Amino acid sequence: MRKLIVAAFISLDSVIQSPGGPEEDTSGEFRLGGWIVPYADEIGQAVQDLFSQPFELLLGRRTYDIFAAYWPRVPADSHSRAIADLFNNVPKHVATHRSDTLDWQNSHALEGNLGDAIRALKHQDGAHLLTQGSGDMVRQLLAAGLVDELRLMIFPIVLGHGKRLFGDNAQASAFTLAHSISTPGGVLITRYVHSGDVRTGTFEER
């Protein structure tokens, strides 16, 4: 069974909204878009490493529309061309009610209930499923207990408000820290692997 990996740029207060640019997602009057840009040189290798293994993209509709408007149009001489080629060619599974508008090549709509559709995908042969952005969808996946790994790049900033990675309905789960490094500017690059249920206890038992 293949894994579902959630990859996210995230602030110290769990905000994931509009990391790449001011106009990426301004909903809720969010005005701090582009907050990862000052750290771009520090995280470049980590981003390349994330995409170095075979993967298929799992995207919510808003993120899909943002990506579909950008990646197919990346110039041939752009420093982002290698990632653009990857994103353009890999299968893309999209949570959407408008399947007839998926114009980006190799895009497929998820049918029916999201949790059931993801479970079916995970049982198919193929590369691991990798999310990018897609906060609304990821919160549903966390609530359903479908996430196998978290690949978080944690930035040393507090944004105060904005869409957050974790909702109040996330399924209680334990994760093991499998990898962690920090950049000179203080970005933590981490990999957490799902390891079962949350354990509890009391100090009186120790």
UniProtKB/TrEMBL annotation:
Tell me the ranges covered by the Bacterial bifunctional deaminase-reductase C-terminal domain, including all copies: 2-187
Q: Where is the signal peptide?
A: none
Q: Which GO terms describe its molecular function?
A: 5-amino-6-(5-phosphoribosylamino)uracil reductase activity
Q: Gene3D superfamilies in the record, alphabetically?
A: Dihydrofolate Reductase, subunit A (3.40.430.10)
Q: Which Pfam families match?
A: RibD_C
Q: Which GO terms describe its biological process?
A: riboflavin biosynthetic process
Where would one find coiled-coil regions in this protein?
A: none
Q: Which InterPro entries match?
A: DHFR-like_dom_sf, RibDG_C, Riboflavin_Biosynth_HTPR
Write down what this protein is called: Bacterial bifunctional deaminase-reductase C-terminal domain-containing protein
